[in-house]
C-alpha cells in the first residue's frame, strides 16, 4: 500500500516539477541574427503589445515609442506607452553592459536591478516590476524573453508572477524605424 501511495504522489508531482524546468538562454547561442542590444535600440523603435491574464483574456493593449541613446557607459531607453484605455506611462531604462557580457538595468518602477543575458538572437531578463493596480503597488516577478527575428523586428514575451503563480503574460512586437 505504501509503494502505491508513493507512486501516486510521484505521478501527481511530475507535471508540477517539469513546469519548473526552464530553457537556458545559452540554448540560443548559435541562432542568427545575433542580437546587439545597443545596435538594435539606438534610435527610435515602435512596439505594439498586450497584457493577457493567465486564462488568455486580453486586459490591455498598447503602443510604445522607444527612444534609445548610448552614452559613455549606458544604453538609455525612454519608453512612452499609450494604452487602449487612453492612459499613458513613461519608463526610462538605464542599462549597463557588464564585463562578462551580461546586462544590468534599472528603471523607476523596477525594484532593484534587472539582470539579463544575451545568447545568439535572444535576451533573457529577470526583474521585479512595481505594478500599480487600483491604487495598490504589486511586486511582480518578470521572466522576460526577447527574440530578434531580423535586423529590424523583435518579439518579446514576459511572464508575470507573484508567489510563484503566473498572473499573466505580456507580448510585444518591436519594429525599428528606418
Topology at a glance:
Layout: H1 2-20, H2 37-41, E1 43-53, E2 58-70, E3 75-83, E4 88-97, E5 103-106, E6 110-119, E7 122-133, E8 136-148, E9 153-162, E10 165-176
Q: Your description of this structure?
A:
This protein is mostly beta strands. It has a single domain, classed as Calycin beta-barrel core domain (Lipocalin, Beta Barrel), CATH 2.40.128. The chain has helices at residues 2-20, 37-41; strands at 43-53, 58-70, 75-83, 88-97, 103-106, 110-119, 122-133, 136-148, 153-162, 165-176. The chain has a 10-stranded antiparallel beta barrel. The longest helix is centred in the N-terminal third of the chain and has 19 residues, at 2-20. The protein starts with a helix and ends with a strand. Residues 9-19 have low confidence and may be disordered.
Give a brief rundown of this model.
The chain contains two helices and ten strands, in the order H-H-E-E-E-E-E-E-E-E-E-E.
Query: In percent terms, what proportion of residues is strand?
Result: over 45%
H/E topology pattern: HHEEEEEEEEEE
The N- to C-terminal Cα distance equals: 69 Å
Tally of structural domains:
1
| Number of contiguous helices | 2
By helix and strand content, what is the structural category? mainly beta
The CATH topology turns out to be: Lipocalin
Q: Residue-averaged pLDDT, rounded?
A: 91
> Strands of the largest sheet, in order across it?
1-2-3-4-5-6-7-8-9-10
Amino acid at each position: 500500500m505504501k509503494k502505491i501511495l508513493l507512486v501516486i504522489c510521484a505521478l501527481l508531482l511530475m507535471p508540477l516539477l517539469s513546469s519548473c524546468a526552464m530553457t537556458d538562454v545559452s540554448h540560443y547561442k548559435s541562432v542568427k541574427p545575433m542580437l546587439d542590444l545597443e545596435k538594435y535600440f539606438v534610435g527610435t523603435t515602435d512596439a505594439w503589445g498586450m497584457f493577457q491574464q493567465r486564462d488568455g483574456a486580453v486586459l490591455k493593449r498598447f503602443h510604445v515609442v522607444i527612444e534609445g541613446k548610448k552614452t559613455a557607459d549606458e544604453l538609455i531607453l525612454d519608453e512612452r506607452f499609450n494604452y487602449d484605455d487612453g492612459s499613458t506611462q513613461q519608463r526610462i531604462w538605464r542599462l549597463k553592459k557588464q564585463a562578462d557580457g551580461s546586462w544590468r538595468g534599472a528603471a523607476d518602477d523596477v525594484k532593484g536591478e534587472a539582470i539579463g543575458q544575451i545568447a545568439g538572437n535572444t535576451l533573457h531578463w529577470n526583474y521585479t516590476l512595481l505594478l500599480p493596480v487600483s491604487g495598490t503597488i504589486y511586486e511582480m516577478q518578470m521572466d522576460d524573453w526577447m527574440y530578434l527575428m531580423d535586423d529590424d523586428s523583435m518579439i518579446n514575451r514576459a511572464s508575470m508572477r507573484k508567489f510563484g503563480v503566473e498572473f499573466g503574460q505580456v507580448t510585444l512586437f518591436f519594429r525599428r524605424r528606418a
